Amino acid sequence: MMKNKLVLERAREDGLALTFDDVRLRTDYAVVMPDCVNLESKFSRNVGLKIPIVSAAMDTVTEYKLAIELAKLGGIGVIHRSLSIDDQASQVARVKHHLNGLIEKPICVYQDDKVSSVLSRRESKDYTFHSFPVLERGDKLVGIVTGNDFEFCEDESLSIKDIMSTQLLTAPEGTSIDDAFRLMCREKKKILPLINNDGKLVAMYAFKDVKRIKTRSAETYNVDTRGQLRVAAAVGIGEEALERVSRLSDKNVDVIVLDTAHADTKIVIDTLKKIKKAHSIDVVVGNISVGASAERLIEAGADGIKIGQGPGSICTTRVVAGIGRPQISAIYDCAKSAEKYERSIPLCADGGLRNSGDIPLAIAAGAHSVMMGSMLAGTEEAPGKIVFAEGLQWKDYRGMGSIGAMEKSEAARERYFQKQTGKNQLVPEGIEGLVLYKGRLSDVLFQYVGGLRNGMGYAGVASIEELRERGDFDRMTSAGFSESHPHDIKITKGSPNYRTELDGTR
After folding, report:
1. 415 among known catalytic residues
2. Which end of the chain is more exposed for a tag (fewer CB within 10 A), N or C?
3. Which residue from 385, 422, 449 is spatially nearest to 51, judged by alpha carbons?
4. What is the pLDDT of residues 91-145, one digit of tens each?
5. Of 94, 415, 453, 468, which is the active-site residue?
6. Active site residue 315
7. C-alpha angle 140/143/148, rounded to 5°?
8. What is the pTM of this model?
């Protein structure tokens, strides 16, 4: 249980709300060094994280490429909902199929398919694999076609049966990953189909994925019980949301994020109850910023809660609507309310982060994870092309409440409860802009995670939960804030984890 944070308690009693630049963590006696701290946490009741980082459900932040890379680094990505139901389900499937222990629904081809049609399908679907089980029209397994078979095929008008291999190594349904690994190593086969008593394909192992799992080279990956990368997906409200959830569940999505600007509403709570009644899946609900809202969502069945109304760098909700609570106080208030319940409900702090040092602050205030938008936008894996301006490389970044996002997407309008509003009558709560191109996500996250580790080391805590429980704060004055940054010097060489106002990133 979190101890009372004196600075935050006094602020709450005085009706004063604090954010990241208002506080700093106190240091404490440390036994565990930063490299040895445990960063594991939870995004929802049943879905864990290797690192407490979640990517925002924004069309300039999270699609399948970033979600794959983030899961491999230990976090989880939330595929945005400004996509058709089919496209969003396809994006989730791409993440789930990227790494497989046991592939329960392998993608197959038929022996009478033309080579050209399979190659076209592979290209259009952007498959990252090249081997397919081959079936007869009765769905019985008859062969395997691999990347080598396609590579050495000189006539694409041939049928798959003309180039496939019929020398199959198979195993019975229910074969464990340990047995599969030993069998594939002994027989030097990269694909192991599992068949039932009728000779029909029921599942499959791919050696490269099995080897990663068995040799621990995928130890940092955030994977489910089947060895597949974890991924979340955002939905809205009402009947359309229920249809999305059904399709996403079919693709084995790990978490549904019921994503609105104001979650403490009857229609959101009603939608949550319907999803939980129809599906056995975790649902994270947001966004809120007061403890009473957290209580209502927990009582309605939420498996996780997203906190943040107006802190994002591209959000104008507080200016346009006069609504929103500074983020540290919002997190703390929701965390104190959530503690009243026996079942532990993870909290995700969504928005307001600018530096790696803000991550331990959010967690010490009560969050189990942080959601990043601008801090991940501009990475190589984020959607969008690199543009050149003022001699620098940039990428687009916009709020889902911006006029551009709302004009393009009904989902963006719905998120701000303006679904029925005409496009010339929209009231945006966000802006569009550019962020500096940051390079590969792995390099960027290395610095963010490193800052978190260092913060935990200074605070003398060995785990995320211990940081939540023990982390304490000092209130910052404006003089203290100025003292926190480099001063009385002209910076001549930049740092990968510190930027100034002059380069447009703070």
Report:
1. yes
2. N
3. 449
4. 999 999 887 778 888 899 999 999 999 999 988 877 878 889 999 988 899 999 9
5. 415
6. yes
7. 150
8. 0.84
